[in-house]
Amino acid sequence: xxxxxxxxxxxxxxxxxxxxxxxxxxxxxxxxxxxxxxxxxxxxxxxxxxxxxxxxxxxxxxxxxxxxxxxxxxxxxxxxxxxxxxxxxxxxxxxxxxxxxxxxxxxxxxxxxxxxxxxxxxxxxxxxxxxxxxxxxxxxxxxxxxxxxxxxxxxxxxxxxxxxxxxxxxxxxxxxxxxxxxxxxxxxxxxxxxxxxxxxxxxxxxxxxxxxxxxxxxxxxxxxxxxxxxxxxxxxxxxxxxxxxxxxxxxxxxxxxxxxxxxxxxxxxxxxxxxxxxxxxxxxxxxxxxxxxxxxxxxxxxxxxxxxxxxxxxx
Length: 315
Fold this sequence. Notes:
Layout: H1 2-19, H2 26-43, H3 58-68, H4 86-104, H5 108-121, H6 126-139, H7 142-155, H8 160-172, H9 176-189, H10 194-208, H11 221-225, H12 228-238, H13 241-252, H14 277-294, H15 296-307
Helix pairs in contact: 1-2, 4-5, 5-6, 6-7, 6-8, 7-8, 8-9, 8-10, 9-10, 13-14, 14-15
């Protein structure tokens, strides 16, 4: 526990240094102040307790560690790489068309595969990354969409559609301030695009007005309900006979522990009351398992939203 407190002390000391740097916005300063209070409360430490200090500061320790274990190189598109052969270009275009066809029938996972194969053959085509970003967004993988849009913009900085799709992905991650900047860039390149204008207006409104449905466990319910991946998953689940049976049993009170089948020859057990807690928990667990199987990427996004919600410290 002593080492844990020393680590917490070093982190708090680093945060204090950042607060005094004068390089943070007022919102960032307030967030760091809350973080410091939370750490001091959780680990029962204070910067006044100099016995917890270590010989090196946290940045010095980190610098030494990164020198020993350098960060892996980032995946970047090399614009100077040899151009693909004509046969490869033609095959990549065919794969892109196949991906577009899968998008039309909402088979987004297959579309991702086709676009990925096209990228392997011709990694210098920004359209393939942008199209794959659209497929990722439909699947709820907004982080993947952001990465592909960045690659597309790196290849073609004048590609307005990449900026527009980047804005959509960022907005879906509740990063409305960043989304606004990308929508504005998209409009600079394509000033007559009504979709960019509409999306920019929505993002600006969300910057000013917090979503009234974003208060349940830190999860943006409005974003979920407008997420095609989530709605498709919900529709598929509710049409699943097993889920329908589970929900029917829960509503009728027959999904609790008391509704278990009795041994042969014994009197049947009494049905659980409609408000049986164990039945509700069991139904919730099974429903969550179904969701995990249907769309693991979306479930991971929900977990990320919950983990990233602001801490609430008691004064």
